[in-house]
Amino acid sequence: MNESIIQLIDVVKTFGDQRVLEGVSFDIPTGKTTVIAGASGQGKSVILKLILGLLSPDAGRIFVDGKDITRMRRKEFNGIRTNFGVLFQGAALLDSLTVFANVALPLEERTRLSHEEISAKVIEMLERVGLQGHESKFPAQLSGGMKKRVGLARALMLEPKIMLFDEPTTGLDPEKSMDIYRLFYQTQQQFGYTSVIVSHDIPKIFNLADQVIILNMGKVLIFKGAKDIQGSGAPSIQALVDKTMGNIYHSNELE
Amino acid sequence: MMLHQVEKIGESTLYYLQDLGRMGIFLFHSMAGIFKRPFRFSEFIKQIRVIGGNSFPVIFFTAAFTGLVLGLQGYYTLRKFGSESALGSAVALSLIRELGPVLTALMVTGRAGSAMCAEIGIMRISEQIDALECMAIDPYRYLISPKVLATIVSIPVLAQIFNLVGIYGGYVVGVYLLDVNPGAYFSSMELSVVNRDINLGIVKSFVFALIIVWVCTGRGYFVHKIRNAGYGAESVSRVTTQAVVLSSISVLVWDYLITAMML
Ligand SMILES: Nc1ncnc2c1ncn2[C@@H]1O[C@H](COP(=O)(O)OP(=O)(O)OP(=O)(O)O)[C@@H](O)[C@H]1O
Ligand SMILES: [Mg+2]
Hints:
The structure holds two protein chains of two kinds. Chain A is an alpha/beta fold. In chain A, 36% of the residues lie in helices and 25% in strands. The longest helix of chain A is centred in the last third of the chain and has 18 residues, at 174-191. Chain A starts with a strand and ends in a 10-residue tail after the last helix. In chain B, helix 2 (41-80) runs antiparallel to helix 3, helix 2 (41-80) packs parallel to helix 5 (139-177) and helix 3 packs antiparallel against helix 8. The interface between A and B is medium-sized, with 22 and 16 residues.
């Protein structure tokens, strides 16, 4: 197994005149948690979309599992995609399907499980994200935070090797955020997936992170865990961190 | 200044070529998706219901009034030559060869085509299509192909319904309001309508169905890549209008081409 499951090398991405990423390089270690932080509009979601092949970089290379996805054919890439579980920033639920059907979708389309087996798994997962009783609602009838949790349930269904979470806790109250982080922690312990968590404020889970990537003005700063950040003398980062350091969650709270 | 103009023309040409290429690839994948397993049969049935259910009332009324008007117009024209008894044949031929397929196609575009375009466009801008791709679910097989097949099946059937209703509309005017002989109405029709007319009508409805579903779903699918369409909900509404206009015009152009080729 590779030490790093995802590698970005000198990735450049522009939209028209706007340079969003100006030569970004980092590795995502296998089986670990990486947090990508940065202010709004810095390109965090763009990075996830590049890794997912939904956008292609103007320059640079992206490796997933040792394979260069920037020069890969669609069909081959679909094979790689089965490794990913994704929670989109806007949840991206299929709005003509119920909560139940949304969560069941990946199992129905990608496995040969019977309806009963699928149903049992879906019910269990919905319970874990605290949505029991909402199975037959449609996405339009849910709050933002509930949608997020449905998206999370859907992403976890196939027990992927890599989980990408785009702002999993925006729109949730602190208690619900805590629940979500607890769920990450537990499912990661259980399945051992690599997780990449994007957040636009300094996340409260730095203590869970094995690596923190801060994206600023098209460049990245890479830190090994929270201690490393606290010790980095850069004043702007210090200011960013200090603001929220008070309520960092500790992993022992999450068990 | 001159150079600037040339650059602009070049840019536009490139854009349209790219757009055409994209739509071509889209058509290929949507057709291929029909043969990929598992085929979403229940979705296909649902789409038939949506297309049929949405369009049937409109088609029924359009057909009835088209038949009534054809009956009136036909009667006054034919009377000048003393051949009112040929009314049935005139009404039936106009409907089967021309008005049935064309008006059905235009009505379905307005009712179902626009809805498909908007639905897929919204799925695109709300990242639902991206989500499907990320779950390694082929969006063509999952979303587009059932719509394509349902449209190709529904439109020819709806066109036949249009023809039938229209023919009875002409009958009502001719026989009840004016004084055409009821027997003559149908016998003139039987004598003059040949297989070739019916085939022409059917070929037309298949081609129109393909055009409509291709243009409407394709424009929705690429709503984010269409130039000057704006963003978000606005882009979906603009692109939907464009798709309806484009598919209506294409239907009329192909109507001419097919008639010219098959006559
Ligand atoms: N499809 C696109 N077309 C044009 N510009 C885009 C596109 N997607 C993103 N951008 C631009 O790229 C920049 C980064 O966007 P991105 O969505 O990655 O921000 P973000 O870091 O995720 O912010 P947030 O925390 O608010 O989600 C933004 O300035 C945005 O305007
Ligand atoms: Mg974002």
